[in-house]
User: Fold this.
Amino acid sequence: MNRDIDAIGGKQLGLITTAQFRSAGVTNRQIGCQKRRGGVERIRHGVYRLAGAPTTWNQALLAACLGAGKGAVVSHTTAAALWGFRHSDRQCGVLHVTAPHQLRLPGVTGHTIALGPGDATLRHSVPVTTAERTIIDIAGALSLHQLGEVLDDALRRRLVDLERLRRLVAAAAARGGRRLLWPLHRLLAQSLPPAW
Assistant:
């Protein structure tokens, strides 16, 4: 492999896409040759793991995002597990990915949402919804008590800014998500004085 490939793989947990191979001057035929020799292993359509790169959960998440295309990020309960939130399980088997376009990937539950500016970040080299956005996405799946524990823990670890969370919740409610967000509204009312 060439240095460009190694540099890309080094930044992406040992992963590289077909498009990245091509931009580094590697042809489809050369990729096939590398597969046969064991230099790369295809792990998703258009996504390869370089030989010697360890197989990790974070790598599987990044592979799903790379396979999903531009703008794809880990989200919902998968993002909660990546953030280390309480009541999240990284072994649940299904990965949740949000993208601005429809997704059809094996083992991935796709969410078609155009995320706003600042709704995504990197965590452990994986594109993911911010901690605030993740809390909004999982709010409807948790009890009020569980959601309170998640919020308290995220605040204690300084992963969440309450004022930013309040603004995001208000924006989500305005788009029609009031019913699912009522527990979060209640918790925020207890945590922050009303905005004037």
